[in-house]
Amino acid sequence: MGEFDLIERFFKRPPQRADVGIGDDCAVWSPRAGYQLAFSADMLVEGRHFLSTVAPHHLGHKALAVNLSDLAACGAVPQAFLLSLSLPHADVHWLSGFTEGLFQLADAHACELIGGDTTQGPLNIAITVMGEVPQGQSILRSGALAGDDLYVSGHLGDARLALEAFRGTVSLPQAVLDAARLRMECPTPRVSLGQSLRGIAHAMADVSDGLLGDLGHILKASQVGAEIDTHIAATLMQTADQWSCPLNLAMTCVMSGGDDYELIFTAPVASSEQVHAAAHACGTRVTRIGRITPTRTLSLLDAKGQAVTTAFRSFDHFA
Ligand code: ADP
Ligand code: MG
Of ligand 1's atoms, which has the minimum distance to the CA of residue 25? Predict the structure, then answer.
C-alpha cells in the first residue's frame, strides 16, 4: 500500500467543520469572532512514551488524549488536529486499531483530523491540536494567588504504578495491574472540567510529568509557593483501596509519577462551592490537596501540619 492509498483509506473522512481538510497542501480554518485559537503539540515515541506491547487502539486513543489534555488545561474547546506519523511499515491490522481508538476519542470531542504527514521510519506519533477559547479567558499557569486552594482532578499515580510493575520493581495482584495499566495506556483528558473552570480557576496545568513537577511550573510562573497535605495526596490512587500499597511507593507514584493527564489548578477559597459544582456537573471528582502560599517554596505537610522530610522528585526526561 502506497502513502497516498494509506492516507485515503485510513485517515481521510468527509470534512465536518474545516473549510479545507485532508488532501490539499494546507488545511484552512476560519476562527470564530470573539474567540482565540489555542494550539498544542505532543509526540509519542516508541520505547520512550509507550511500550511495544500496547494495543494499537489504546495508542491511537492516547496519542490524541495527551493533546486534548493540554487544551483542557487552558480551558479550551477542542476543534481540530494534525497527525504526523512515522511508521515502520503499512500494517493494516495496526492502522485499523490505531485509527479506531483515535477517531473514537476525536468524535467524542468533535475534534476533526484536518491533515498531517505520513512517512516510513521508526514508530513515532506526533499530533498538533487546535482548540478555541473565548477571548481572554484561557486559564494559564501564571495566575495562582497566595491563599488559593490547590486542587487536582481524578486520580494520580496509577500509570506510574503500572510502569513499576512492567519494570519488575513491584508485583501487583492481577486486578490492580489491569486497572493501573488502563490508566497508563488509556488516559481520560478532562476536557469538560477544564472548560467549566473558566472564570473560577486562577491557574491550571495538566499533570503529565508528575504532580510535583507540574505544580512547580505553576508556582514558578505565578511566583508563589504551595503546601501539599500529603495524607490527602496519598489517597489519590484509583487502585488504593484494591490492595495495600506500601506508603512510600504510593507517595512516589502520586507525587512524581507522571502520565496521569489530570488537571491541577488553584481557585480562591470563596469559590470552593463553584469548583465542586463544576466537577459534579462534569462527573469528575476533584480533591483539595493543599494551598498556595506567598513564600516561594513547596512544602509537604503531614496530617498534623508538620513538614514531611522525604524528598520526591518529578520525572524528568533529561535526568
Ligand atoms: P505534501 O507533500 O504536500 O505535504 P502529503 O503528500 O504529505 O502533502 O499529504 C497529502 C495530504 O494528506 C495532505 O493534505 C496532508 O495534510 C494529508 N495527510 C498526510 N498524512 C496524514 C495523516 N497521517 N493524517 C491526516 N492527514 C494526512
Ligand atoms: Mg508531506
Answer: 3
Q: Does one domain contain both 48 and 130?
A: yes
Does 104 map to a domain? yes
Domain that holds residue 34: 3-134
Closest approach atom of ligand 1 to CA 118? 20
0.85 surpassed by pTM: yes
Q: How far is the CA of 117 from the centre of ligand 2 (A)?
A: 5
8 in any annotated domain: yes
What average pLDDT score do residues 50-71 get? 96
**Ligand nearest, relative to CA of residue 13:** 1
Which CATH number do you get for residue 79?
Answer: 3.30.1330.10
* Residue 98 alpha carbon to ligand 1 centre in Å: 17
Ligand 2 centroid – CA 11 distance (Å):
14
> What is the C-alpha to C-alpha distance for residues 255 and 237, in angstroms, rounded to an integer?
11
What whole-number distance in Å separates Cα of residue 184 and Cα of residue 66? Answer: 11
The number of folded domains in the chain is 2
Residues 6+ apart with CB under 8 A from 123: 45, 46, 86, 87, 88
Q: Express each pLDDT in 61-112 by its tens digit.
A: 999 999 999 999 999 999 999 999 999 999 999 999 999 999 999 999 999 9
